[in-house]
Specification:
Layout (H helix, E strand, L loop, with lengths): L17 H24 L2 E5 L2 H27 L7 E2 L6 E2 H5 L20 H26 L4 H12 L2 H9 L5 H17 L5 H13 L1 H22 L4 H22 L1 H13 L15 H13 L16 H9 L5 H15 L1 H7 L11 H19 L3 H20 L5 H25 L5 H23 L9 E3 L3 H5 L2 H7 L8 E4 L2 H5 L5 H4 L5 E3 L5 H9 L4 E3 L2 E3 L5 H6 L2 E7 L10 E3 L3 H4 L3 E6 L6 E4 L1 E4 H4 L4 H10 L1 E3 L10 H6 L16 E2 L7 E3 L1 E5 L3 E3 L3 E4 L4 E7 L5 E8 L2 E3 L12 E8 L2 E8 L12 E8 L5 E6 L3 E4 L2 E8 L3 H8 L5 E6 L2 E8 L3 E8 L4 E5 L2 E3 L2 E3 L3 E6 L2 E9 L4 H28 L1
Parallel strand pairs: 5-9, 13-14, 13-15
Antiparallel strand pairs: 1-4, 2-3, 6-8, 7-8, 9-11, 10-11, 12-31, 16-28, 17-20, 18-19, 19-27, 20-26, 21-25, 21-28, 22-27, 23-24, 23-26, 29-30, 30-36, 31-35, 32-33, 32-36, 34-35
Length: 929
């Protein structure tokens, strides 16, 4: 008896029967259960540590609160208020451009509106499962369009949905799996256009893809362009030049309409990326990858072993024989072979990964397309494999033997994984075709069942291993019902219970900082200064770079290293430390004693010199005089004068001349400078003499530390100053491997631990070869305030190698004048500040002209109004927003609109008009025909 699954899809058949999708669904549940069985049995969730928790989980939880607030406001007031800016994103950032990369624009994440933030873990896990399932459904629909047999299509869908890329990406960066869903549907749209069918499906898929994430839309655009070019030669055999130009015009037009439709999110996202420091850095791209990459890739295509540089394939062992059979075909499947050669070439050449990673470091995040291709090769070649001829069988057996020998000798793999893979491959190649032949006269169901079992076993080999740990505590996944509490943890919960109505920011130190997660402010509802998302405000990034702030990369920072002056200028009211701190390390702070803090192992310190949200300067310092200062002097300058983006030489010039003389983005009109005096900044920091005592495994000579053994140390001995904040400053600090030629792998980063005053700080040095290297070579470590003189600093080098620097400075900042300088800044301040969606307002009275500085990062999205009249918004202290005010009473309003949003909405309106015109024209042409 023959199953309906054995029946090929005829030319006139438009749909797979429901049984095909039902069988796929059953197989999906079984395979998913096998892969994730250990996690669920150990009471684990699908929220993994690292980026998944810090970025994706927090973004999803925040997005749900964000949507619910919009809905609540609309129901209660009838007004559709969409917050475009939020102070909880780092120092304050654009909501749309920051989170469009993660949740905003993804249709699936709209479900977060129905899930409380504390239950986000369940939605997060459910969306991972849904994305995997939908990627297989998309593959099935593509196979239907391509008129492929049903059973191979189901097998291909399972291989695609459970490829190693899918399993890894969906659990570490869930939105990466969205492209796996969109790809098959985009290819279906291309096929429909080639077949002279409606382009509407293609346009809608372009719209959805562009809406979800501009980065992966860029990758998908390149992939579908290559696909369309290859398929063009299948559809057109004559007059190709003319047809190619016509197809190019049609596809470009339809593509552009889809892009226009998504303009309201796509354009702001692209503009934000262009101003983000991460996307503007130059990266070193080598001619080839490290040898280990190619060895792992050889084995990992079928086993799921990652090769590095985001290269995950893992398409189950059953795709190996179909691939070999494909390459044995002489005239058939030319397009499929071209795809294989092109995409394999992309995997081998770092520059391809560089281009497909938006010209950043080489990364193969596009490798889901390779998984799609391997799964489709399986679909095309499975019927031929199950009816393999003797000569083909002998060639396949020989190739298999050679491949296993090659993997065993050259491939970098564990013995256990190699044995499992070898056995499965041998069974697939040697036993299955014979078993199929013997079963041919009795029906194909037994052979199909055998193939399904081998496919499932092949996926389980890398699927189960990826999530299995002998010790549950070693798993990268969090325990069930724990993810939310990991982010909104004890240090923050005590602060939340204070219910302080004032606008303030907080910072953490020591163990409190170690257990706190970046982006935790999003779910706690507090204003912190930590940030970790791909699209960061370039203005904030430049500020952190100039003052040697505490960050590893400019899109991942953890505040201002508890530097008292910088924190006060940023409206920090609370510092959170732990009981290991020997004394109060925060000058001007007092230990807060409340019933809430009494039960906590963490200590909350309150700033007695906190600046209000809007404080004022009566003098200025030109930025040209500010830039040459060292980091300690920069903060002293900002405490005494408003650093403004204009050259002092421009005073007396006309406004146009002043603007022309500066290359900066927010120049102050020269005609208004006469209202302020130029500051005479007093620098009181002291550079301290010191001596260096290396350990026996470290030699020091002429600005070089030669570290011969990991964890070796040096001691810096000095005589500090009482009542001061203490800094260790490196200028042009670099690291290179020791005996690099003998090392198998080039180190691209090094860690230094520095301890002083009972405080330990860590410093990470990145080399130009590191993928996130941003050109930073100057570092400052803050050892906080000490009432007694600092005596020594101990540096521990975690990697052996050569550490070079131009200068090593120990700097002390006496704090005697600090309180008086703070009082001067808050003599006149913005009273009764009101924070509402996209609007900040307040009032201020001045007896003399001053610059009002508000701790909102400067952005072209903000516009200022004073007494109802539009005013010039200034960039103050290179990061914040300010307004030059004359004497008198003033009502101040700041309004925010996402840069590019207006133009993006206009693009979307044009897209709607164009899409409507295409639909009408299509209907009219159908009626005429």
């Amino acid at each position: 008896m023959h199953s309906p699954l054995n029946k090929p899809v005829s030319e006139n058949e438009k749909t797979f029967p429901v049984s095909c999708f039902a069988l796929y669904s059953i197989l999906f549940v079984i395979i998913f259960g096998i892969c994730f069985f250990w996690l669920f049995s150990q009471n684990k969730s699908l929220v993994s540590n690292g980026d998944a928790l810090n970025q994706h989980f927090s973004a999803l939880g925040y997005y749900g609160k964000y949507l619910r607030e919009i809905i609540r406001t609309f129901i209660e007031t009838g007004n559709l208020e969409i917050p475009l800016w939020d102070s909880k994103l780092g120092f304050g950032s654009d909501v749309i451009t920051t989170l469009n990369y993660y949740v905003i624009g993804d249709p699936l994440t709209l479900l977060s509106a129905f899930v409380p933030a504390s239950k986000t873990e369940y939605l997060y896990g459910g969306l991972i499962i849904l994305r995997l399932y939908l990627s297989g459904i998309g593959f099935l629909f593509y196979c239907r369009v391509m008129k492929k047999d049903r059973f191979p299509s189901i097998c291909g869908a399972c291989v695609y949905a459970f490829s190693a890329y899918a399993l890894y990406a969906s659990t570490t960066h869930p939105f990466f799996a969205n492209s796996m869903i969109y790809l098959p549907f985009l290819l279906m749209g291309i096929e429909k256009i080639f077949q002279k069918k409606s382009p509407c499906f293609f346009i809608l898929m372009i719209f959805i893809s562009a809406l979800s994430n501009f980065y992966f839309f860029y990758v998908l655009s390149i992939l579908i362009l290559l696909y369309a070019i290859i398929r063009f030669f299948d559809y057109y055999k004559e007059h190709r030049v003319r047809h190619f130009l016509l197809c190019l015009a049609r596809f470009s037009g339809f593509y552009f309409v889809g892009v226009l439709l998504a303009g309201f999110l796509l354009l702001p996202g692209i503009l934000a990326a262009l101003t983000s420091r991460r996307f503007s850095m130059d990266h070193t791209v080598n001619i080839g990858y490290q040898p280990g990459y190619y060895k792992k890739l050889l084995f990992g295509i079928f086993t799921g072993q990652g090769a590095g540089n985001w290269t995950f394939i893992g398409c189950s062992v059953i795709t190996f024989p179909p691939l070999v059979l494909l390459l044995m075909q002489k005239k058939k499947y030319r397009s499929l072979k071209v795809c294989f050669l092109v995409l394999t070439g992309f995997l081998l050449i770092p520059y391809a990964g560089h281009v497909l990673n938006v010209f950043s470091y080489a990364a193969n995040r596009w490798s889901y397309a390779y998984c799609f291709m391997m799964a489709f090769i399986l679909v095309c070649m499975l019927p031929e494999f199950l009816q393999i001829h003797k000569r083909q069988f002998l060639v396949l057996a020989g190739v298999t033997a050679c491949y296993l020998i090659l993997c065993g000798t050259l491939g970098q793999n564990s013995d256990e994984s190699f044995v499992k893979f070898g056995i499965l491959l041998a069974v697939t190649v040697l036993v299955l075709p014979i078993r199929y032949t013997s079963a041919y006269l009795h029906g194909k169901s037994l052979a199909y069942l055998s193939y399904l079992l081998l496919m499932t076993a092949g996926i389980a080999c890398y699927g189960f291993d990826q999530f299995y740990f002998s010790d549950p505590d070693d798993s990268r996944f969090h325990n069930r019902d724990a993810s939310y509490s990991v982010i909104v943890n004890e240090p923050l919960s005590a602060l939340m219970q204070l219910n302080d109505p004032e606008f303030f920011r907080y910072e953490l130190m020591g163990q409190a900082s170690d257990i706190s997660r970046t982006n935790s402010a999003l779910l706690s509802g507090l204003n912190g200064m930590d940030f970790y998302y791909s699209i960061a405000d370039g203005n904030v990034s430049k500020f952190l770079l100039k003052v040697s702030g505490s960050y590893r990369s400019t899109n991942c920072y953890r505040g201002l290293d508890n530097r008292i002056i910088l924190d006060s200028l940023a409206n920090v009211k609370y510092q959170i430390g732990d009981s290991t701190l020997k004394e109060n390390p925060f000058y001007g702070y007092t230990l807060l004693q409340t019933p809430q803090t009494a039960q906590s192992p963490y200590r909350i310190y309150q700033n007695q010199n906190m600046l209000p949200f809007g404080y004022t300067y009566d003098s200025y310092l030109p930025r040209s005089e500010y830039e040459p200062l060292d980091p300690a002097q920069k903060q002293a300058a900002m405490l005494q004068a408003a650093v403004l983006d204009i050259d002092h030489d421009a005073v007396g010039d006309t406004v146009d001349e002043a603007v022309e003389n500066t290359q900066l983005e927010a120049p102050l009109s020269a005609s208004n400078l006469g209202l302020l005096k130029k500051a005479e900044v007093q620098y009181t920091d002291k550079k301290l003499p010191y001596s260096i005592s290396p350990s026996k495994n470290v030699t020091y000579k002429n600005g070089n530390f030669h570290v011969k053994k990991p964890s070796s140390s040096i001691t810096i001995t000095l005589k500090g100053i009482r009542d001061s904040e203490n800094y260790l400053i490196f200028r042009n600090l670099r690291f290179k491997n020791d005996n690099q030629k003998k090392r198998k792998k080039t180190e691209t980063s090094a860690e230094i631990s520095a301890a002083a005053n009972g405080i330990t700080k860590n410093l990470t040095i990145l080399t130009p070869e590191y993928r996130w290297y941003e050109g930073r070579n100057d570092y400052l470590l803050n050892f906080a305030y000490s009432s007694s003189p600092l005596k020594e600093i101990k540096l521990t080098f975690q990697q052996k190698g050569i550490y070079t620097f131009d200068d090593l400075i120990v700097n002390s900042q006496p704090m005697q004048q600090y309180a008086a300088q703070i009082r001067h800044l808050k003599q006149d301040y913005l009273k009764n500040p009101v924070f509402s969606p996209n609007r900040i307002s307040g009032s201020i009275h001045l007896d003399s002209a001053k610059v009002l500085c508000m701790s909102v990062p400067y952005s072209k999205g903000w516009s200022a109004y004073v007494n109802g009249e539009k005013a010039e918004l200034l960039r103050v202290n290179t990061i914040y927003s300010g307004i030059l005010l004359e004497p008198g009473e003033h009502q101040v309003v700041l309004k925010y609109v996402t840069p590019g949003l207006g133009a993006g909405i206009l693009c979307s309106l044009l897209g709607v008009i164009s899409f409507t015109a295409i639909i009408i024209r299509r209907k009219l042409s159908v009626r005429r025909s």
